[in-house]
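May I ask you to review the protein record following this short note?
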Amino acid sequence: MMTYSLENNVKFDKQKGVVKELLEQWNNCHRRIFLESLLSKCSGSQLEFLFSVTEPLHHRGFIYSAQHHLQQCPPISTPSSRHEALLFALENVSEKFYRPKSAVLKSQEDIDKLINENSSVYSVMSGGLFKSNKTKRAATSKKFQKELGNVLTWYEKQWNDSEKLDILYVVLCGLSVHELYHATLILNLRRYRDFVTKLPLDLSLKILSYLTPKDIVNASEVSKDWHDICTSDVTWNIKCVQHSVPPNNPEGLRQQELYKNNVLLKDNWKNGRCRVNCFSGCQHKMVSVAYDTKTGKIASGLVNGEIKIWNLSKSGGALIATLISHTKSVWGVEWFKGNCLISCSSDGTIKIWNVKKGLCQKSIEAHEGKVWTIKCDTDVIFSGSDDKSIKCWDIKRCEVIQTYSGHNGSVFCLDLNGTDQLLSGSADKTVRVWDRHTGECMRSIWVTHTNPGWVMGLSVSQGHVACCHNDKVTIYHINTGVLVKTVHSHSDAIESVQMEMNNGSKNTGTTLVTCSKDKSIHYWELDKDVLHKLEGHKDTVHKVVCTSTRIVSVSADCTLKIWKFAAPNHPNIRRKTLISGGQGQLYLYEYHYDENVQYESEETKLYKKHLAKRLRQRNKLSGSSSDLGSRELLSSLSDCSMSTVSSITPVEIASH
């Protein structure tokens, strides 16, 4: 074994001597061809070794100091050099120091272009190393081809890793300064190869699909080409599909913005963060509300018989109409189609309104007692009354189609389960399930035995019904009548409930929204058993309507509140120059959702801390007061002091 090892060492030493002799015999053109061929055979560890040995040639300070030997050889753009340029820009000292433009290498064509642009200088300094015609003639030499083939065969098949590193070191020592610079160009190209732009687009997108959204955002800062791919709708559409982002995009947002808004929305719901818009000015209590998500209009019923119409699509929301016809409290309002609104009242009537014209088109004498609730579906209206009955009305003919009898108390709430079942809640402490076509009571669920025990509200979702009575909410399976869950969080009677049950998707949960006489709104994440409380009303909250982005509530304090959980698509933006220098300026974009609150990102804080640290170091060297300088620096970066941090604070830093 020792004899075999000794023979190998002797053989390798002879081969190494041959390589040294060949390097001395070959001209510059031969060495360039040999260098390019050898580097193409190197593994990753060997390339790292070469990169470490040639590290000084990557440093722009070395290039500047050795410019007598490296005339017109620009420094090479690397991640470290770009980071250094950013620090220069942050310190605003780019104009005080000479920084030659770096060479950006993306392909072999960039290297050839750099060589051709400076061929006159290189040909003098290196004896024609970079002249392509000489290179072609040298490559066709049979003797050279044989010698080159022998060395590459030894490298690939006979030498081990340590012997290869030894040969690489010998090769580097045998190169001239310009040949080393040329080797550095090739090494940079091999080390920082842009695989995203080189691969077919489908493969690049497949690779990016395995990254997290945060990693994709970071990758978009690598280069302009990466930015174009990482911010494209195709890339973010994959992420939207992976994370079950709803495809509806009425505002035409880009997929990245759509994904970001969805993430912010989920995070705000999870942490109970929202912005509140309050609409006041009414002199009477509000007891009912309906929200049309398509038009952005809200209808609220008042105890004096009026109906207020609000338009949220206008800036800040505005009262656009007041409908007057009812003589008593309006306990139910429902949007039907377009500008058609249906309302019910304690005066025993159901009215159909043309909101655009502000006129009552039809008035139906519906029940002998107060009409507490209505529910619309296709071309029919269901109404529940103080006379203990439920009626189904044909909207066009204003005639009764079906009457549902069986309750022993006032009917306060109605909801539909699919196209065949109607559910009702009553003062008789029951929830009844009806066949809406035949009028037959299919099931009666007793929800409580305590007094008063009135079922004031119910909500149907995914074959389950949530009903509120006293200060509790109970959830039942509709087909079996089995109690699934009991929720108790309010300190007073609950007035309204809305449930959205999980449909099987892993990214959606079961939520329950309630309002109460205790002046608060609660929403539960039932799958996580997490409660969030929304407080702001000063009197009983009579009704809530919940969508995917907001909660709308009306109260006896004469106000309507909108609890917005989504970040605004068009916030007020103030742009302020944070730093400038180099090839551009860095701007700070501050999003202002509230005129009284100013927001600041973590990136901005880090920039301020970095600048303050640099200024303290300079002042320490110059003997000046660092505290004063830091205060002046920080005050120059901020127009006003920070006030209380708001619930939603997304801020961006963008470079232009």
About this structure: Residues 2-25 form the longest helix (24 residues). Residues 121-138, 570-601, 624-656 have pLDDT under 50 and may be disordered.
